[in-house]
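Re: that backbone. Tokens:
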């Protein structure tokens, strides 16, 4: 893997670079005596065979700098299903990595450090399973001022202003735009923190053409999604915390003016053909036979079909490599691009979409070795670690000072670090009731029927409410077993 190769190269960069740095880290965060200590780290993340992948990412440098510390990695993610060698029993509830983590944290030999996803932090705080880090941060004068606001503010948001974990890296999305399309239309480029309405209005000004020559204004993904309105709606509503059902998971909450406005907004984008439509595969095959094949034909942005698109930070490598190697890519013409923040809602002017923090590190409230746990968290979230890991392809280090632009390319990197993440609703409910995702299936069907002109928006929302309430009752009675979906009502 490229990622592993880069990490290996970093680890062998040189005794001249690494040893002084790690010696400094040892003095600052390492152990003062030679007594062997065991630090137990449990994680809900994919860790690889014998925790190899996890160790490469997070623990090897610490073990190098602290010879007397032995780290035990305890994964709670069941990896036997990952490659499809073992098929899960549909009659059994899938094993929940977070539930297993909680069980370990309260067991007889609890882990000292826990590493998990940002979406799991709120649940662990609510169950009083984590140690508040603020007193340790203050005592050791651990500097958090340089941590990306989106990361530290996102963590504080879930802890009622307090810090219960730190994340050394994160991943987020922004809007990438094709400067050539804007220049040809004589339209100004998008800017940071535009409202969704402003961005949609801007997309109207650059969209033009018909059929295969159509230039679309905006896309919720660089990949052609064939007009997936459900995904677009989820991205759009995430910062609004718009609920499908109440906090108890017992009653639908979609038959409202706010949901109606959202659906009408999404449908208007489709009606105006501002969003890319489904690719014509027969046309793609014909182009291939005519030797006009575009290697990026399924990528709406690189193919030049869309002016603006939401893109994940990790996807930028594909864009950069395409532009650098354009001469050798048949059917591809390079163009200038840049990025801006995701658009925002007026009701939530500083909130973007979903953000991945991989992974949030915290101290178990029942840790047997809390002092060493804190030293480890300080080390991995400190400046020296960030300096060494700053060249990651897929994640961004949380220390602003060491964030590097990919391959030295000039672009608006702050677009990925400015907005705080939208909170994911009902994580606990979805874990406890595995069938809850099917509520969204009903909504997708209703939205499809509206887009096909079979139902009016409000009528579709009422139908979603009725069928959804029936489904919620069945799920409450049988949270994880087989569920008979409600019969679709006559349109």
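Recovered sequence:
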């Amino acid at each position: 893997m490229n990622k592993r190769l880069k990490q290996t190269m970093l680890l062998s960069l040189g005794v001249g670079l690494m040893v002084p740095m790690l010696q400094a880290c040892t003095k600052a965060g390492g152990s003062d005596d030679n007594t062997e200590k065991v630090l137990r780290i449990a994680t809900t993340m994919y860790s690889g065979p014998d925790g190899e992948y996890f160790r490469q990412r997070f623990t090897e440098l610490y073990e190098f700098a602290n010879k007397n510390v032995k780290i035990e990695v305890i994964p709670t993610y069941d990896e036997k299903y990952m490659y499809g060698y073992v098929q899960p029993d549909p009659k059994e509830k899938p094993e929940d990595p977070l539930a297993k983590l909680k069980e370990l944290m309260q067991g007889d030999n609890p882990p000292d450090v826990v590493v998990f996803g940002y979406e799991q932090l709120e649940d662990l705080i609510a169950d009083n399973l984590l140690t508040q880090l603020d007193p340790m941060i203050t005592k050791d004068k651990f500097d958090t001022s340089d941590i990306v606001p989106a990361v530290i503010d996102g963590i504080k948001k879930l802890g009622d202003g307090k810090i219960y974990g730190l994340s050394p890296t994160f991943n987020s999305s922004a809007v990438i735009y094709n400067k050539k399309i804007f220049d040809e239309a004589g339209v100004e480029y998008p800017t940071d923190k535009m409202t969704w309405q402003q961005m949609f209005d801007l997309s109207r000004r650059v969209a033009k053409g018909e059929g295969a020559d159509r230039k679309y204004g905006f896309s919720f993904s660089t990949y052609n999604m064939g007009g997936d309105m459900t995904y677009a709606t989820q991205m759009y509503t995430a910062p609004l915390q718009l609920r499908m059902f109440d906090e108890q998971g017992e009653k639908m909450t979609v038959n409202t003016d706010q949901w109606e406005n959202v659906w009408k907004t999404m449908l208007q984008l489709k009606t105006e053909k501002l969003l890319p439509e489904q690719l014509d595969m027969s046309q793609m095959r014909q182009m291939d036979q005519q030797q006009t094949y575009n290697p990026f034909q399924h990528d709406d942005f690189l193919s030049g079909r869309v002016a603006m698109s939401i893109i994940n930070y990790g996807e930028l490598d594909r864009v950069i490599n395409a532009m650098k190697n354009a001469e050798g890519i048949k059917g591809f013409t390079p163009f200038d691009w840049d990025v801006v923040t995701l658009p925002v809602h007026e009701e939530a002017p500083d909130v973007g979409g979903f953000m991945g923090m991989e992974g949030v590190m915290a101290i178990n409230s029942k840790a047997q070795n809390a002092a060493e746990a804190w030293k480890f968290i300080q080390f991995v979230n400190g400046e020296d670690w960030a300096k060494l890991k700053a060249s990651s392809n897929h994640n961004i280090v949380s220390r602003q000072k060491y964030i590097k632009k990919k391959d030295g390319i000039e672009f608006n990197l702050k677009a990925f670090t400015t907005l705080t993440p939208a909170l994911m609703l009902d994580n606990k409910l979805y874990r406890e009731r595995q069938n809850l995702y099917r509520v969204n299936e009903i909504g997708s069907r209703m939205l499809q029927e509206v887009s096909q002109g079979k139902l009016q928006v409000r009528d579709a929302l009422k139908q979603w409410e009725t069928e959804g309430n029936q489904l919620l009752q069945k799920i409450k009675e049988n949270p994880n077993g087989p569920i008979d979906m409600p019969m679709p009502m006559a349109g």
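The first strand starts at residue 37 and ends at 43. Confidence is low (pLDDT under 50) at residues 1-28.
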